[in-house]
From TrEMBL:
Organism: Novosphingobium kalidii
Principal location listed in the UniProt entry: membrane
InterPro entries referenced in this protein's UniProt entry, alphabetically: Beta-lactam/transpept, Beta-lactam/transpept-like, PBP_dimer, PBP_dimer_sf, PCN-bd_Tpept
Pfam families: PBP_dimer, Transpeptidase
The protein's name in its UniProt record: Penicillin-binding protein 2
Keyword annotations: Carboxypeptidase, Hydrolase, Membrane, Protease
Domain Penicillin-binding protein dimerisation: 28-144
Record-annotated membrane-spanning stretches: none
Residue intervals of the Penicillin-binding protein transpeptidase domain: 199-482
Annotated localization: Membrane
Keyword match Thylakoid: no
């Protein structure tokens, strides 16, 4: 009879029967996030919660015992229980959570108290098996089931969809590389007593981020138990003046523009007076320097002259082509806007930008720029999605292939003979550049506060990965020979990271290979000094 009534209703109203997909009931509430190799980074699992239901007993008071007595028994199970708060809640008869995510044995002990109003329903909880690792990439899920901050926020709708729940979502991150980067950045922080650190490992040919670390970090498993300190992402959201790491970009732009026609040409290295401003080097470097010596010694004075000949229009255009005038291209919601001087750049601005002052960008901007320096000249947007071969973006050409080849030689020379020697990792052919920049403050730059950065790539005979290591306000300690500059604290991080991640990425050490710098060696009669 009921079926006949239902058929009659559908025939008269044109209604359609709703289809229930029972298989979806077996899926987690939120999809699994994995790294590029399938290792789980975030997943749902069922947990018990402790819930106070004052209406559990239809007759009489909500509790059998006195609130204080019940709380005392609960505290024996949960020593860190906020007894005053829970006592007030029980006395008021207000329904609500007393505890989230309790263990089965804890639920059994609560049951033994014998209070029907103390219930422990099973609920879905988000779990991050790697703990704090890659926390700034992943973000977290709040108590309402909403993704926050990282890829949990970016992928929120997808992870809740039937497709996202049915199959895992792969990020570009490699959990092994991520662990090595975080470990060595943390070690670098400890050795130099720095207040923070940031790092990136980037595939130079695809733009995929294999590791992204901001330290100190936070544990997404413990969001509700703390005020979530350290949630700010230094890699994508904080902008810095990154100092001498910009010098290779300036040289590459000048090579492309034809204002440098010979790497052996010499420029005077004495302090440079521009209007009422004087550009100096950190120490005397001789009367003149050529291009390899300028990069190896890290001369502000000569780099400024190279930029002056290049001109503000071409310098600014190069920086724009590298995306340094806009937020970093990454899926994360926290993306800092660069400090970028608009309009025509005057002569002094062009000079200071050439050695990394006057504009401020994120470490991720720098990683993308170095990828273009060494990969043949192509800039590509960075991504946290694992890309299939056909998904790699075409990118845009910033430098010619010949200029990129030259920069590979020059960056390798900096590590072989210059200020980057402590970044060398035998057999991995590391190239890169130091950068030690004073942080701006009220009334000017603060000499006591440095941002120390090393921007690198390896192996330089066929670059595959860029690795950036940055330390925020390192101090001179015995471990760094009482030096605060990048050559003494950021560069050693690279020398430890690369041998750890190289074999994981299929790059084995080979001391019989290297980028050919034989045509440039005659330009450097002696090795650079620290």
């Amino acid at each position: 009879m009921c079926a006949l009534v239902r058929l009659t209703f559908l025939g008269l109203t044109g209604g359609t029967a709703q289809r229930t997909d029972y298989s979806s009931l077996l899926l987690p509430a939120r999809g699994v996030i994995v790294d590029r190799n399938g290792s789980p980074l975030a997943r749902d699992f069922r947990v018990y919660s402790l819930w106070f239901n004052p209406k559990a007993m239809t007759d009489g008071p909500p509790l059998v015992g006195e609130p204080r007595q019940i709380v005392a028994k609960l505290q024996a199970i949960f020593p860190d229980l906020d007894t005053a708060k829970v006592t007030r809640q029980l006395a008021s008869g207000q329904a609500g959570y007393l505890r989230r995510s309790i263990l089965p044995e804890e639920a059994n002990r609560v049951h033994a108290i014998g209070e029907p109003a103390l219930q422990f329903p099973q609920e879905a909880s988000r779990f991050y098996p790697q703990g704090s690792m890659a926390a700034h990439v992943l973000g977290f899920v709040d108590s309402g089931g909403q993704g926050k901050v990282g890829m949990e926020q970016v992928l929120d709708a997808h992870l809740k969809s039937p497709e996202g729940r049915a199959q895992s979502t792969a990020l570009s991150i490699d959990v092994r590389v991520q662990g090595a980067l975080e470990d060595e950045l943390g070690r670098g922080m400890a050795l130099s007593n720095a207040k923070g650190a940031a790092g990136v490992v980037l595939d130079v040919d695809t733009g995929e981020v294999l590791a992204l670390a901001s330290l100190p970090s936070f544990d997404p498993n413990k969001i509700e138990r703390s005020s979530t300190p350290n949630i700010f992402n230094r890699v994508t959201n904080q902008v810095y003046e990154l100092g001498s790491t910009f010098k290779p970009i300036t040289v590459a732009a000048a090579l492309d523009a034809g204002t440098i026609t010979s790497l052996g040409r010499r420029w005077p290295a004495a302090p440079l007076h521009v209007a009422r401003f004087t550009i100096r080097d950190s120490h005397a470097m001789g009367s003149s320097l050529n291009v390899p010596e300028t990069l190896m010694h890290s001369s502000n004075v000569v780099t400024a002259q190279i930029a002056d000949e290049l001109g503000g229009v071409r310098m600014k255009k190069t920086m724009e082509s590298l995306g340094m005038n806009e937020r970093p291209t990454i899926e994360l919601p926290a993306r800092g806007f660069p400090i970028w001087p608009s309009g025509k750049w005057p002569r002094l601005r062009t000079m200071t930008v050439s050695y990394g002052h006057g504009i401020a960008v994120t470490p991720l901007h720098l990683a993308s720029a170095y990828a273009a320096l060494v990969n043949g000249g192509i800039w590509r947007p960075t991504t946290l999605h694992k890309l299939a071969p056909g998904q790699v973006p075409e990118g845009r050409r910033v430098f010619t292939a010949s200029t990129s080849a030259r920069m590979r030689q020059l960056l390798r020379m900096i590590v072989s003979f210059g200020t980057g020697r402590k970044a060398d990792a035998p057999g991995f052919r590391v190239g890169g550049k130091t950068g030690s920049a004073e942080k701006p403050g009220a009334g000017g730059y603060r000499r006591s506060s440095l941002i120390a950065t090393f921007a690198s790539a390896f192996p330089m005979d066929h670059p595959r990965y860029v690795v950036i290591a940055m330390l925020d306000e390192p101090q001179g300690t015995p471990a760094t020979s009482f030096q605060r500059t990048a050559a003494w604290n950021a560069a050693p991080v690279i020398s430890r990271v690369v041998p750890r991640i190289g074999p994981l990425l299929g790059i084995m050490p080979d001391e019989t290979r290297d980028v050919d710098i034989s045509d440039l060696k005659p330009l450097v009669p002696g090795e650079a000094k620290e």
